[in-house]
Specification:
alpha+beta; Heat Shock Protein 90; 5-stranded mixed beta sheet; 11 helices; nucleotide-binding
């Protein structure tokens, strides 16, 4: 049987470690002193018992030394120490051994039933020896008390030698287990706070990445579409500048309008980004978990603030802009129109916008068909164009348009498919839950 350190304070940190089963050197020193005192006591009581029993005094006295020294093992084997103290009870030896042994046993992690059995055995042994001692000594002093007086006095003696150390040991053991439980809970809370801080940092990093991705998509949609149309109109303006001044003037006006629209949308996005930092109050830095959570919340708020973008009602204007740039575009609407959430409307608009931009860039002169189907719980989009009539205007392409569309649709739980058609054109399809 082992103990949790009945005497030593297991929670004391920084103390030098002891050898073998001692947690600290101070505990080793205490047990050595107790063992020496107990060995001396057992030796003297053994000599006295030998004289009374007619046994060799020297032999019995020497035998008491290792018996008393068993206190050195009390932290490692408390049950064995108590059994030794019970075994030598008839010889009226080991008072210190019995008291300290019972205390250590009660304060240890030994099962409670074993503590009860050994404490009862120690009490019974002490009671029997005390009764026998009274019956032997009282007649010699010419004092003959009644049986019940002797029994009560023996019970008090036996209880006085067993109950206090057992009760004190139980109290100390319960208190130590409570302290260890509180320490474990504190360590668990510390680990939980550390995990929460890590998760808050991950959420903040995720929010920052999401915001960067969203900004990249918005910048791509605004710049790519508007600038593509501006390039197409500029090319048309260059072609008709001398032949048809009136048409050139209209194209120039369109280029100016598109440039102003692009600047307006860019300023809107930049304003959202500046709002959080410009309006943030100057306060003292918050603790790390709270600061990281605040960063994540602020980033998420900025993302939500920018979600309100164009709507499906503006698709007709978008198609007209492409028609004005010379593209043959057909807009087909199916089902009963109904309002959707801002993210759904904005995503549907951006899908159509990016698809038409790709037609301008990669398939000039091709006819495009935009189909929008309003269904019970979703909106379906399909943008299909025919083969190109010639080389494109040479606009740069980073290949992020389709990726951005797919990310937008997937973020809302929708399905996005794109690819070439058998006729040599290209088709973009998306279904967005509404």
């Amino acid at each position: 049987m082992t103990t949790t350190g009945a005497i030593t304070d297991a929670g004391a940190r920084g103390a030098p470690a002891g050898p073998w089963w001692w947690e600290r050197r101070r505990g080793l020193a205490l047990d050595v002193v107790l063992a020496l005192v107990s060995a001396l006591e057992c030796m003297l009581e053994g000599v006295s018992f030998a004289h009374e029993a007619g046994l060799p005094a020297g032999l019995v006295g020497l035998a008491g030394i290792p018996v008393g020294a068993t206190l050195l093992l009390r932290r490692r084997w408390p049950v064995a120490v108590v059994l030794v103290s019970i075994a030598i009870t008839p010889a009226e030896m080991g008072f210190l051994l019995g008291v300290v042994g019972l205390y250590t046993l009660a304060a240890s992690d030994v099962p409670r039933r074993i503590i009860v059995v050994l404490s009862g055995a120690s009490f019974a042994g002490t009671l029997i020896v005390t009764l026998a001692r009274f019956h032997r000594d009282m007649p010699e002093d010419a004092y003959r008390p009644g049986f019940w007086v002797t029994l009560v006095f023996s019970l008090v003696m036996a209880l006085g030698l067993t109950a206090p150390p057992v009760l004190l040991g139980l109290y100390v053991g319960a208190r130590r287990r409570l302290v260890e439980s509180l320490r474990e809970r504190a360590d668990g809370l510390e680990r939980e706070l550390s995990l929460l801080a890590d998760r808050a940092e991950e959420r903040a990093e995720w929010a920052r990445n999401e915001e960067r991705t969203r900004i990249a998509r918005e910048m791509h949609d605004v710049v790519a579409h508007r600038v593509s149309l501006m390039v197409v109109h500029a090319a048309a303006l260059q072609a008709v500048a001398l032949k048809d001044p009136e048409k050139a003037s209209r194209n120039a006006a369109l280029v100016g309008d598109m440039g102003r629209q692009a600047l307006t949308e860019l300023r809107s996005m930049l304003g959202v980004l500046r709002t959080a930092s410009d309006t943030a109050p100057a306060v003292e830095p918050a603790p790390e978990p709270e600061r990281l959570a605040a960063v994540a919340a602020a980033a998420s708020a900025r993302v939500k603030a920018a979600e309100a973008g164009p709507s499906l009602e503006e698709l007709a204007d978008l198609v007209e802009q492409s028609r004005a740039a010379g593209m043959a575009v057909e807009l087909s609407l199916e089902g009963e129109e109904r309002p959707y959430t801002a993210p759904v409307e904005s995503t549907a608009y951006r899908v159509v916008q990016e698809a038409l931009t790709n037609v301008h860039k990669h398939a000039p002169g091709a006819k495009a068909v935009v189909r929008v189907a309003h269904r019970e719980a979703e909106v379906a989009l399909q943008i299909e164009n025919g083969p190109s009539d010639g080389p494109g205007p040479g606009l740069p392409s980073g290949g992020n348009g389709l990726i951005g569309m797919r990310e937008r649709v997937a973020a809302l739980g929708g399905v996005f498919v794109s690819g070439p058609t058998d006729a040599g054109g290209f088709r973009v399809s998306a279904v967005i839950p509404g």
